[in-house]
Amino acid sequence: MKLQLPLSLARPLAFSAVTTRLLMGIFLDLPWLYNAGWIAALGAILLCVPLGLLADRAARACRGGGIAEALEKRGGRAVARPVFALLSLVCIYETAVTSRVLSNTVRHVALAEASAISLLLPLLLAAMLCACLGGQAIGGAARIWVRVMPVLMLIVLLLQFRSFRPAWLTPLLGPGANVLASGTVSASGWLSMAALPWLCADREENGAKQRGALSTLVTIGIFSAAVLALLAMMAPPSVRTDLTRTYQLDKLLANGRVTQTAQLPLILLWYNGLLFNVTADLFFAAKLLQLTFPRLDGRLAVLLGGAVSGAVAMLGWAEQRMVVSYARWLFAVVGTLMLALFAAPLRKGGKRACVHTK
Amino acid sequence: MRSYKIAILALLCVLLSGCTQARQVESIAFAVILGADLTEDEGIELTVQIPKVGGASESEESSSGEPSDYLIASARGATFTDALMALEITVPRDLTLTQIKLLVVSEALARHEKFFNFAESLAKLDQSCASAYFAVCRGNAGEFVREQKPVIGMRVSLGILAMFEHHKTRGYIVGTSFADFYYRGVSVFSDPVAILCATAQEAPEALRGRDALDGLTPENVPASSENENEYVGTALFRDGLMVGTLDGLETSLLNAIHGSTVFFNYSLDGMPVSLQSHGMTDLRIENMEDERLRIAFDLRFNVIADLKAPPLESIRTTLREDLAQLLAKCQSLGVEPFGFAARAASRFPSLAQWQAYDWPQRFSEAEFDVDVQITVTDT
Predict the structure, then answer these.
(1) CB of A107 less than 8 A from some CB of B
(2) Which domains occur in chain B, in start order?
(3) Most confident of A193-207, A263-277, B78-92
(4) Per-residue pLDDT at A358 exceeds 50
(5) Which helix or strand (DSSP H or E) is residue B62 part of?
(6) Angle B307-B277-B152 (CA atoms, 0-180°, nearest 5)?
(7) B248, B217 contact by CB (below 8 A)
(8) What share of chain A is helix, strand, coil (3-state, %, to 5)?
(9) Which of these, A92, A204, A303, B39, could form a disulfide with B43 (CB 3.0-4.6 Å)?
(10) What ranges in A2-76 are assigned the alpha helix state H?
């Protein structure tokens, strides 16, 4: 079985999955950015612009079929396959990180003591089943979700409207320029993952004109920055306390000012976003694994990706401290790998680079 | 292949079923009020009020001798966590704090150095109860919890929300939730405040100040009813400790500066005046030549002409005097509960530079220029 993702579904899938990852990363994992997290999200857009441009150019140059395969043909197997393998490992780790956060927050919100395995196993099984159904299914669900999400966001905004204080967005640079710059680099790593769907997608023959990777990266960054700015306006920066993930999650989901029933739209937004993130990351991990080993069956690739992700999550290798350290290098790693992949064929032959040989 | 998929789906139904660990309402004790006191040995005593699902029981009676719809439970410990653990032992169900509507701490605890740790423990609790109203009680918080009854209506949980909405509109309390209190407490902007309350069994004989709210505190409300718990005024905090209080009138003016629309009665040489606040405009915070801070703003009110045309100039003068007294009182206590800090901080590029500016000190030495604008509503 070959895992496929139509290019027309790359945009909704990237938006559904990466927006939550960016919000999760900046708000939960980098709480010391305080009220300036939204600036980090905007800064990440600037850093990711070259990546978006390259992804767009590669997708445009390819007239039909898989973009990654076409890039491999032109760039050479020796360059492409190690890149696919490394990107697959990144996606597996991202799956582990998100599923760990998802299981931890489920345990917190449900006020139930449950073992990590009982929380992670059903989640990963569900994600593996979805990934096995293919990119058409995941992308189609994402397309529906991006239409439901604004309605839920509107409800949340109306419920919290009286809590917003624009003055809490200042001092504008929050923790200072250096910390903010470091946070921006981490945020760029998470945002750069939005270019992956364009690498893993298959261009439809005579497909309609598609929105590109660059515009999607910019949309995700702006949307996330807007949400982070709204969150920053709901409470003054908590400078004098330990900012644990639990504390930040309570602030994110409840903000202390609404009743539990009013939290439902936020909880739906949060958990659906995380589920999309886990599923999409697992799908990309499997797809990239299949690109590395073309004879590997898609279902086996998904199973392998899910099993390794589960092991990483359960062994505690995806906890906050490690995630923060790894996030500093994520942009450099993803950026370099994608640059090597996208730039090689363009440098060699422009638009003809991606034409499939028959 | 189809049977294989059906088998997987059936397996997932079992694994993903959220009801496997469901807890029924009967197995949970939902606390609606939590009180906290400081014990003689500087520990924490917690008291909770829990509705009995199914109604009053003949065997358990309240202090008035009637069957009670609520279970009152108390427990002590060296810390909040220890006391909570003891409380979980004495309450014969899973104690849940997520439905709490009111958190009350005694003034003794609020003024004690243990208070900040207590607040931290409460804020970082797995079971978030941060949306509850937060009050400081004159006297014993446990007694206050016992006295909190649904004197009007059926349920204390909804009754508390209705009661606070009523008090907030009249301006003599601040509508502070625990989240508001805690977020302010751990921020570097304005200082946090809480609702002031007390159990007053008898009305005082002598009247106090020149009007209904002037000098009014919860223990000297000149009224008596079946309801003995009163909420009037504000508890002021600085650096995690309670440092002072505001009376009913001062709290109304504090609410007016915050921009809340409140209705309150004001007395001018014996003449009652109904005032409605319309918020603050034109806030300017600037450094003067002598490096002191100058804070200027306009406060807008609407006055309702009840019996005869109100003397606007006199009202304006008296209000300005009352505001000046309020600002001076807060300066002397070293607290800034007005929300000026967030505005002042906007001139600084980073939080570190803002903290180095030493706002509390600057505020305590600031000069004020307050103007009061009054419009009149007549029929």
Answers:
(1) no
(2) 27-377 (3.30.300.210)
(3) B78-92
(4) no
(5) none
(6) 80
(7) yes
(8) 80, 0, 20
(9) B39
(10) 10-23, 37-61, 67-75
Helix axes A320-349, A177-192, angle to 10 degrees: 60
Task: Name B73's Cβ contacts closer than 8 Å, sequence gap at least 6.
Answer: B47, B48, B50, B87, B90, B91
Q: B29 CA to chain A: closest CA distance, Å?
A: 14
Q: How far is A302 from chain B (nearest CA, A)?
A: 15
> In angstroms, what CA-CA distances link A57 with A9, A82, A239, A339, B330?
18, 22, 44, 12, 63
Residue A237: cis peptide before it, omega within 30 degrees of 0:
no
Q: Do B123 and A129 touch (CB under 8 A)?
A: no
Strands across the sheet containing B263-268: B263-268, B271-287, B293-304, B367-377
Strand A202-203 to strand A65-66: parallel, antiparallel, or no bridges (unpaired)? antiparallel
For residue B215, what are its two tokens? 């000098």
Mean pLDDT of the B226-238 span: 91
Q: B373 is written with which tokens?
A: 């604008």
pLDDT at A158: 86
> Which residues in chain A are contacts of B21 at CB distance < 8 A?
112, 114
CA atoms of B173 and B251, how far apart (whole Å): 6
Task: Share the mean pLDDT of chain B.
Answer: 86
Question: How far is Cα B40 from Cα B374, in angstroms, rounded to an integer?
Answer: 51
Q: Running DSSP on this structure, what letter comes out for residue A24?
A: I
| B351·A254 Cβ contact <8 A | no
> Do residues A282 and A115 touch, judged by C-beta distance below 8 A?
no
Report all structural domains of chain A as residue ranges with CATH numbers, in order of start: 7-346 (1.20.1740.10)
Cα separation, B133 vs B19, in Å, equals: 32
Does the structure's ipTM exceed the value 0.90? no
d(CA A350, CA A61): 8
Among all chains, which residue has been given the structure tokens 């034109």? Answer: B282
Contacts of B178 in chain A (CB under 8 A): 256
Does the pLDDT at position A339 exceed 60? yes
**Which long-range contacts (C-beta less than 8 Å, at least 24 apart) are formed by A78-82?**
A79/A340, A79/A341, A79/A344, A80/A291, A80/A341, A81/A291, A81/A292
Residue in B343, B346, B351 closest to A34 by CB: B351
Looking at B175-311, list the stretches that DSSP marks H as alpha helix, in order from N- to C-terminal side. 178-185, 248-258
Two structure tokens written together for A346: 């363009």
Residue B285's pLDDT is: 94
Decide if A256 and B348 are in contact by the 8 Å CB cutoff: no
Long-range contact list for A311-315, CB < 8 A, 24+ apart? Answer: A312/A92, A312/A93, A312/A96, A313/A96, A313/A97, A313/A99, A313/A100, A313/A103, A313/A116, A313/A120, A314/A116, A314/A117, A314/A120
| Of the listed ranges A21-25, A209-213, A256-260, the one predicted with least confidence | A256-260
